[in-house]
Amino acid sequence: MSIRIVKWSEDMSVKVRAFDRDHRGLVEFLNEIAYAIDARIAPDALADLIRHLADEAAAHFSREEAFLRGTGFPGLDRHAVEHRRLLGEIRAAADRVAAGDIAEDEALHAFLHSWLIDHVVEFDKEYVPWARGTS
Fold first, then answer.
1. Which helix H or strand E contains 54, and what residues bound it?
2. Structural domains in the chain, sorted by start
3. What is the DSSP-derived secondary structure letter of residue 117?
4. Predicted pLDDT of residue 2
5. What is the structure's pLDDT at 82?
6. Residue 67 to residue 29: CA distance in whole angstroms
7. Dist. CA 133–CA 113, nearest whole Å
8. Out of 1, 7, 82, 100, which residue is the most buried by the measure of CB atoms under 10 Å away?
9. Position 67 pLDDT exceeds 90
10. With the C-alpha atoms ordered 35, 36, 38, 39, is the resulting torsion angle positive or negative?
Protein backbone atom coordinates (compact mmCIF):
# COMPACT_ATOMS: atom_id res chain seq x y z
CA MET A 1 0.00 0.00 0.00
CA SER A 2 1.15 3.49 -0.67
CA ILE A 3 0.19 5.54 2.35
CA ARG A 4 -1.11 9.02 1.84
CA ILE A 5 0.39 11.39 4.37
CA VAL A 6 -1.49 14.57 5.14
CA LYS A 7 0.51 17.75 5.47
CA TRP A 8 -1.00 20.61 7.40
CA SER A 9 -1.32 23.81 5.42
CA GLU A 10 -2.70 27.24 6.20
CA ASP A 11 -5.51 26.48 3.76
CA MET A 12 -6.84 24.17 6.47
CA SER A 13 -6.86 26.89 9.13
CA VAL A 14 -10.16 27.84 10.75
CA LYS A 15 -8.56 30.98 12.23
CA VAL A 16 -8.94 29.80 15.83
CA ARG A 17 -5.52 28.85 17.20
CA ALA A 18 -6.83 26.23 19.63
CA PHE A 19 -8.82 24.46 16.92
CA ASP A 20 -6.02 24.69 14.38
CA ARG A 21 -3.78 23.08 17.02
CA ASP A 22 -6.42 20.35 17.57
CA HIS A 23 -6.77 19.80 13.85
CA ARG A 24 -2.98 19.55 13.43
CA GLY A 25 -2.94 16.95 16.20
CA LEU A 26 -5.69 14.95 14.50
CA VAL A 27 -3.76 15.12 11.22
CA GLU A 28 -0.62 13.85 12.97
CA PHE A 29 -2.62 11.02 14.50
CA LEU A 30 -4.12 10.16 11.13
CA ASN A 31 -0.58 9.95 9.74
CA GLU A 32 0.42 7.66 12.62
CA ILE A 33 -2.49 5.39 11.71
CA ALA A 34 -1.42 5.47 8.07
CA TYR A 35 2.07 4.29 9.03
CA ALA A 36 0.54 1.58 11.25
CA ILE A 37 -1.64 0.38 8.36
CA ASP A 38 1.39 0.34 6.08
CA ALA A 39 3.34 -1.64 8.69
CA ARG A 40 0.44 -4.10 8.86
CA ILE A 41 0.20 -4.01 12.64
CA ALA A 42 -2.16 -6.41 14.39
CA PRO A 43 -5.85 -5.62 13.96
CA ASP A 44 -6.38 -5.13 17.71
CA ALA A 45 -3.54 -2.61 17.89
CA LEU A 46 -4.85 -0.78 14.83
CA ALA A 47 -8.36 -0.74 16.32
CA ASP A 48 -6.91 0.78 19.51
CA LEU A 49 -5.27 3.55 17.48
CA ILE A 50 -8.54 4.28 15.70
CA ARG A 51 -10.41 4.33 19.02
CA HIS A 52 -7.84 6.78 20.37
CA LEU A 53 -8.40 8.95 17.29
CA ALA A 54 -12.15 8.84 18.03
CA ASP A 55 -11.52 9.87 21.64
CA GLU A 56 -9.34 12.78 20.54
CA ALA A 57 -11.92 13.83 17.96
CA ALA A 58 -14.72 13.64 20.56
CA ALA A 59 -12.79 15.92 22.93
CA HIS A 60 -12.13 18.36 20.09
CA PHE A 61 -15.76 18.29 18.96
CA SER A 62 -16.92 19.05 22.50
CA ARG A 63 -14.61 22.07 22.75
CA GLU A 64 -15.60 23.26 19.30
CA GLU A 65 -19.33 23.00 19.99
CA ALA A 66 -19.01 24.91 23.29
CA PHE A 67 -17.09 27.65 21.50
CA LEU A 68 -19.59 27.82 18.64
CA ARG A 69 -22.48 28.03 21.10
CA GLY A 70 -20.83 31.16 22.51
CA THR A 71 -20.41 32.77 19.09
CA GLY A 72 -24.05 32.34 18.13
CA PHE A 73 -23.08 30.24 15.12
CA PRO A 74 -26.41 29.42 13.41
CA GLY A 75 -25.17 26.08 12.06
CA LEU A 76 -24.34 24.64 15.49
CA ASP A 77 -27.11 22.03 15.56
CA ARG A 78 -26.18 20.71 12.11
CA HIS A 79 -22.51 20.79 13.10
CA ALA A 80 -23.18 18.79 16.27
CA VAL A 81 -25.19 16.20 14.31
CA GLU A 82 -22.29 15.84 11.86
CA HIS A 83 -19.86 15.38 14.76
CA ARG A 84 -21.97 12.54 16.17
CA ARG A 85 -22.22 10.91 12.75
CA LEU A 86 -18.44 11.09 12.25
CA LEU A 87 -17.72 9.66 15.69
CA GLY A 88 -20.13 6.82 15.04
CA GLU A 89 -18.42 6.01 11.76
CA ILE A 90 -14.94 6.12 13.28
CA ARG A 91 -15.90 3.91 16.21
CA ALA A 92 -17.68 1.49 13.86
CA ALA A 93 -14.52 1.32 11.74
CA ALA A 94 -12.48 0.48 14.85
CA ASP A 95 -14.94 -2.28 15.73
CA ARG A 96 -14.75 -3.70 12.19
CA VAL A 97 -10.95 -3.66 12.30
CA ALA A 98 -10.92 -5.42 15.68
CA ALA A 99 -13.30 -8.06 14.31
CA GLY A 100 -11.12 -8.58 11.23
CA ASP A 101 -13.84 -7.31 8.92
CA ILE A 102 -11.77 -4.67 7.13
CA ALA A 103 -10.57 -6.40 4.00
CA GLU A 104 -8.74 -3.52 2.42
CA ASP A 105 -6.39 -1.34 4.44
CA GLU A 106 -6.36 1.32 1.74
CA ALA A 107 -10.13 1.69 2.03
CA LEU A 108 -9.81 2.20 5.78
CA HIS A 109 -7.13 4.84 5.36
CA ALA A 110 -9.11 6.56 2.60
CA PHE A 111 -12.14 6.69 4.89
CA LEU A 112 -10.17 8.16 7.81
CA HIS A 113 -8.41 10.63 5.51
CA SER A 114 -11.68 11.68 3.94
CA TRP A 115 -13.61 12.28 7.16
CA LEU A 116 -10.83 14.36 8.68
CA ILE A 117 -9.87 16.43 5.68
CA ASP A 118 -13.41 16.93 4.42
CA HIS A 119 -14.58 17.91 7.87
CA VAL A 120 -11.76 20.34 8.58
CA VAL A 121 -11.37 21.86 5.14
CA GLU A 122 -15.02 22.07 4.18
CA PHE A 123 -17.37 21.72 7.13
CA ASP A 124 -15.42 23.64 9.78
CA LYS A 125 -14.74 26.50 7.39
CA GLU A 126 -18.43 27.39 7.70
CA TYR A 127 -17.87 28.83 11.17
CA VAL A 128 -14.84 30.99 10.31
CA PRO A 129 -16.89 34.22 9.96
CA TRP A 130 -18.25 33.72 13.51
CA ALA A 131 -14.82 32.87 14.91
CA ARG A 132 -12.89 35.91 13.64
CA GLY A 133 -11.13 37.74 16.40
CA THR A 134 -12.11 35.25 19.09
CA SER A 135 -9.02 33.08 19.11
1. helix 43-71
2. 13-131 (1.20.120.50)
3. H
4. 59
5. 92
6. 23
7. 29
8. 82
9. yes
10. positive
